Amino acid sequence: MKAVSVKLEGIVKRFGKVVAVERADLELPAGALVTLLGPSGCGKTTILRMVAGLERPSEGRILIGGEDVTRLPAYLRDITMVFQSYALFPHLNVFENIAYGLKVQRRPQAEVRERVAEVVGQVGLGGLEERPVAALSGGQQQRVALARSLVMQPRVLLFDEPLSNLDAKLRKHVREEIREIQQQLGITTLYVTHDQEEAMAISDLVVVMSKGKIEQKGDPRTLYTQPQSRFVADFIGSANFVEGSYSGGEVNVAGYRFPHRQDLAPGDVTVMVRPEAIHVSDSGVGLEGTLHSVAFLGARTEFSVDTVVGRLEGVIAGNAPELPGKGARVRVRFAPQGVYLLER
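RESULT FIELD:
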């Protein structure tokens, strides 16, 4: 099936006097995986439900493949959704769960067997067709839910917090499987999560939402290195924020000056510094500081430094040289690649 684009134009959703989504404009390129990311109550699931046809926008239009589906009922949109709860039938086995939608459509038995066999292979459930779903692991149940959606050959695939019921290690494994299958099949996919690491790991495009509004959209690297607001900078990864000024390709933070190029008018700025960009030494240029804490965590060392501009949180990846202990006097420098300036 040819991949289709999905477009939201001026979408507004009100529940009484509450505005859940405010003027959302968004395009999902054909075959892309786009993630709606944000805290609880930001409107991401409401947008997902409107695309699915489970909610109707108060204003605006939804187009799938160029067709206006705003008022089209869910069952005519050729969309399937993988739910957070899986919503499997406990009294049916794996094959019966996957085949359920096709049987409701009264597809010929030969077609049902052929299509179920195809998706069972795609999601790695071969040999488990006769097993009761209650006897499956959480990851296997998630694959059954995915297969049940894929077998319908939808134009658009939706995910609503699909990994929240899995433990951390299994979440990472299953998200990689979802991404691999999505790329293999080229299905346009809208994915909802509040987990920024999950969003960055699987997405072509991430849409960060807050209080019903789209704050910023872009590929994961751009969102991390060039956030357009303090909210995005703080939600995507971790960040330190200090006040400073910018002029002539140079940033001044409490007398510590360092080069930085950004298309920004001279003046006061908020300086975002990622933890990995915090470097400490026992001498040289930089902010004077005192080590407040040092924690060796195997793959990384986390530390914090008290300075005149406040406490700065840093991280060193890998087997780095051992830092001095708590209370040591140090100099703090910022690595340019981990710095981005925000207008005040």
